[in-house]
């Protein structure tokens, strides 16, 4: 009888250990997913910033061109 009880206990312990391991794995997976999501968000933000910078540069270039044209027109008049 005692042997049977011991075996049962061992089995239960093993099951518990397995469950714990599974839980740990799940937690790790969740953490990884969260990290990936964060990275994605960061990438998106960076891309948006780059786009904004490009737009600003283009606007500046356009303004410069307009100024140059105005100067040329004034020179022609003068």
UniProtKB/TrEMBL annotation:
<protein>
    <submittedName>
        <fullName>Uncharacterized protein</fullName>
    </submittedName>
</protein>
<keyword id="KW-0175">Coiled coil</keyword>
<feature type="coiled-coil region">
    <location>
        <begin position="1"/>
        <end position="78"/>
    </location>
</feature>
<feature type="region of interest" description="Disordered">
    <location>
        <begin position="1"/>
        <end position="78"/>
    </location>
</feature>
